[in-house]
Fold:
Amino acid sequence: MGADQTIDWRNTAASALDWWHEAGVDTLVDDVPRDWFTAPEPLVVPSAAPVAPVVAPSAMPTLLADFLAWRSSAEVPEADWSGVSLAAVGPADATVMVLVDCPDRDDGDAGALLSGASGRLLDKMLAAIGLTRDEVHLAAVCAKRPTAGRIQSEVEARLSEIAKHHIGLVAPKRLLLLGNAASRAILGTELQGARGRLHGFNHKTGETGSGSASGEASSETGVVASFHPRFLIEKPAAKAEAWKDLQMLMRGLTSQEGVR
Structure:
C-alpha cells in the first residue's frame, strides 16, 4: 500500500525546521554557492593578551633617617590622602617606642603627633613611669589621619608591614601600642584580646610570639597593648587598667610610680 498517507507533512516540516533552529541554523540558503567538498579553513585562535607583571612594593630604606623621609613620599599608602603627613619623633635608639593609630584631628595644625588633650595625657602617663616624651620614639601606623579616623581595610596589611619595619630600625626594648588599630597592626589581634600580657616581637624578622617575653634578647622587643589616651579621656574609669599596662611595660627596666 506504500507509505502511510495519514502523515501531517506540514507539522513534520515545521518540527524539523524548529530542530535546526535550536541547533543554530538560521538560514536555508547562502548568498553565494557553497562548495561542500572544500576543506574548512583552519581555526585561528587569537593569542592571549600579555599579562602585566605584578609590581612589588619598593624596598623600604634601611636607615632610620632615610625611612622617615620616605614615610612622607609618594610610595606610601597615604600618599593620595588629604591632610598633613606627620613624621615620627624621638631618639633613634630609644629604649621605649610608642605606636598610635594615626594623628589626632588637630595634630596637622600643630605639626606634631598627639599635640592636644591626648598628648597631655600621654605625657602624664609617661611621667608616671619615669619617662618624658623626649625619651621615647613616638610614631603612628598612619602618617596621615584617614577619613573618620579609621584605617581602610585595603591598606592595613601594607601599613602593618611598614610599621614593623619602623620598629626594626629603632629596635626598642619595649613597645607600647595605644589603641585597637596599633594592636592589630603589630600583634594581629584586637586590643581586648591583646591586653594583659607582655608579648614578644622579633624586630629583625617581624614575627610576633604569644605569652611572656623578657625583651632582653638583642632581637626581641617586649610589647604591651593598652588604651589610647583619647579613650581614657572619654572613659576615665579605664585609667586603673591602663596603669597596670604601664607597669607591665616597664617591669624589669626601671621602677615606677602610680598614674596621676
